[in-house]
Amino acid sequence: MASNVHSTEQGLRVHYLTNLGGLIALAGLDMEPPDFLLGALLSIARETVAIGPEQRAEIAAMGQVKLDERATGKRAWTSWNRARELHSITLTSAQIRRVIVALGRSAPKESGALASELLRTLEEVECDG
Question: Whose CA is closest to 115, among 124, 104, 126, 95?
Fold first, then answer.
């Protein structure tokens, strides 16, 4: 049976992604089909590389005005800052086992149990030290 409990980090990530969805809605793009919306975002991402500091500040000021109108600025910035502390990595089962063992714990043999055991081990090590 799946558990509905999630970690603080997962909650922060969901909150951050929700805020991103809110920004898309504020821009009036929330009713666009997914393929168009992703294409538009990819286009913007490509163009962002060529934007200089002056134009970037202009665009940010335009966005700040909209955030201020909706009184969502503080919430969006807080979420963005929290999300910057999250790091997504991909580890193999063997790598997770090595981390668990390096932290002085015994790694489970089942690959499906490794991620939860790693989180549990990290919480225990944090409490111990």
Answer: 95
